[in-house]
Write a structure and sequence with these properties.
Layout: H1 45-49, E1 66-69, H2 75-87, E2 89-95, H3 101-112, E3 116-119, E4 125-130, E5 142-143, H4 148-159, E6 164-168, H5 171-174, H6 179-187, E7 191-195, E8 199-205, E9 214-216, H7 222-232, E10 238-243, H8 250-257, E11 262-266, E12 272-277, E13 287-288, H9 293-305, E14 310-317, H10 324-331, E15 335-344, E16 347-355
Helix pairs in contact: 2-3, 2-8, 3-4, 4-6, 4-7, 6-7
Length: 370
């Protein structure tokens, strides 16, 4: 049985639409002028933020796996592509965007903050940005559903602008404390009115004039780091985040791709200082969101373990903070060939050719599981 017989990815077979965007949902009865604005691409906010019904899948043994796999786009990079597109002056074109509920909530938030966000018939997206400092005060709350990443990143974005916005989410997101983001953004001049423990719903009053800070992260968090850097975009001078433990660097990479001045300096005792020069004019660029390495893990491991298999996984990010599994599998004897290496939106991207292999046990360093 060939890989194409399995509903695990976008392939030339009957299951090729498993990860394709769902058709736009019809507007609910009675929707009118008082209804929330439709999501980009005419996807309703109700349909975007609701869970899809469960669909049963059946797995059967296979003699061998073969074929080409393209997995869904990376969620972390999808969020950031929309946000930086909204801050650039001009049109940013995005392909491969992950169209899950979390990312669609960020797309709608950018729209409510003044950017023109549109999904095209070919599945690509365009964002006409308003420039750093040009955000519009939203007339309605920013609803992030269950997306902690979207909420925290956009809090940083709003905190650096002299506007007021209310952040809401579903029951799960409303239970999660936002204090780790609130603390540094307050230091930069923003004001927060939140439930006990810094929980949603909360209202954020952005800084009249954002102040650059040097902020040592008390705990490793790419979301807190990103929120501070996003607020620092509209602050004069240099905003610095200091890491004791390196975290995902998607924000720094994409900032550079959009033309921001970001310097990364190694310091004593393994400290890392990320320095951003504020008030840049971000330039739009074409972003191809690479495939999610976590989603790619399933077909890769299946091919390694199934005798006679050979597959190609196209266009996944091999960001050093995300590729630990593939490094480990190669150390275990996995036949994984890295092909067509390239840079897309600041991210290292490649195709992987994977052949069945006899794996051996190794001792993997604990930091790879972080």
């Amino acid at each position: 049985m060939a890989l194409k017989d399995f509903p695990i990815a976008t392939l030339s077979c009957s299951c090729q639409n498993l990860f394709a965007p769902r058709p736009p949902a019809a507007a609910p009865p009675g929707a009118g002028r008082d209804a929330p604005p439709a999501l980009p691409g005419n996807i309703s906010s109700e349909s975007a933020l609701a869970h899809s019904p469960a669909t049963p899948l059946t797995a059967e043994p296979s003699a061998r796996l073969s074929g080409t796999v393209r997995v869904p786009g990376d969620k972390s990079i999808s969020h950031r592509a929309l946000i930086f597109g909204a801050l650039a002056v001009g049109e940013t074109r995005i392909t491969g965007l992950l169209e899950g509920a979390d990312v669609l909530a960020t797309a709608e938030a950018m729209r409510r903050l003044g950017a023109d966000v549109e999904r095209h018939a070919d599945g690509s997206w365009s964002v006409h940005g308003v420039g750093v400092g040009g955000l519009r005060e939203p007339e309605q709350p920013l609803d992030f559903g269950n997306s902690g990443t979207g909420a925290r990143l956009v809090m940083g974005l709003v905190a650096g602008h002299p506007i007021t916005a209310t952040f809401i989410g579903d029951a799960s997101l409303s239970r999660r404390p936002m204090g780790r983001v609130i603390a540094p953004l307050t230091d930069m001049g923003a004001t927060f009115h939140a439930r006990a423990g810094g929980r949603l719903p909360l209202t954020l009053i952005g800084a009249r004039r954002a102040m650059p800070i040097a902020y040592p992260l008390p705990v490793a968090s790419a979301q807190v780091k990103s929120a501070v850097l996003l607020a620092g975009l509209n602050a004069p001078g240099q905003t610095t985040v200091i890491e004791a433990t390196p975290t995902r660097d998607h924000t720094e990479r994409m900032l550079k791709a959009f033309g921001a001045d970001v310097q990364i300096e190694a310091g004593p005792r393994g400290l890392l200082a990320i320095r951003l020069t504020g008030e840049p004019e971000l330039k739009p660029c074409a972003i191809t969101v690479p495939g999610d390495p976590s989603s790619a893990a399933f077909p890769v491991v299946a091919a390694l373990l199934t005798p006679g298999s050979e597959i190609v996984v196209q266009g996944i990010t091999l960001n050093p903070h995300r590729a630990g599994l593939y490094t480990t599998l190669k150390e275990m004897g996995g036949d994984i060939e890295v092909m067509n290496q390239r840079d897309e939106g600041g991210e290292p991207v490649a195709d992987l050719r994977v052949r069945s292999s006899r794996l051996r046990g190794i001792e993997a360093p604990p930091e790879r599981a972080a």
